[in-house]
Write a structure and sequence with these properties.
mainly alpha; two-stranded parallel sheet; 61% helix; flat
Length: 92
Amino acid sequence: MCRNIKTLFNFEPPATEGEVEAASLQFVRKLSGFNSPSKANEEAFHLAVIEVAAAAQKLLDSLVTNAEPRDREIEIERARIRNAKRFGTAES
């Protein structure tokens, strides 16, 4: 799956509408193979983004967990560490 689509469930504060839309856009881009659709496909592309975002938001709203919400700052730091290991970059 697309590495740009991030986990949105169980964060404090919850995922924003913009984050859900961004993930939906990445998903539709991956499925269609278009980064930017042609004029002929533009309406179908944008409709798909809207429908995927609605389905994603419905899913996020219906999921339940007993786990503590994750902290965005901690997750960002973990990702930074993973990237440094993966790409061999060291922060000074």
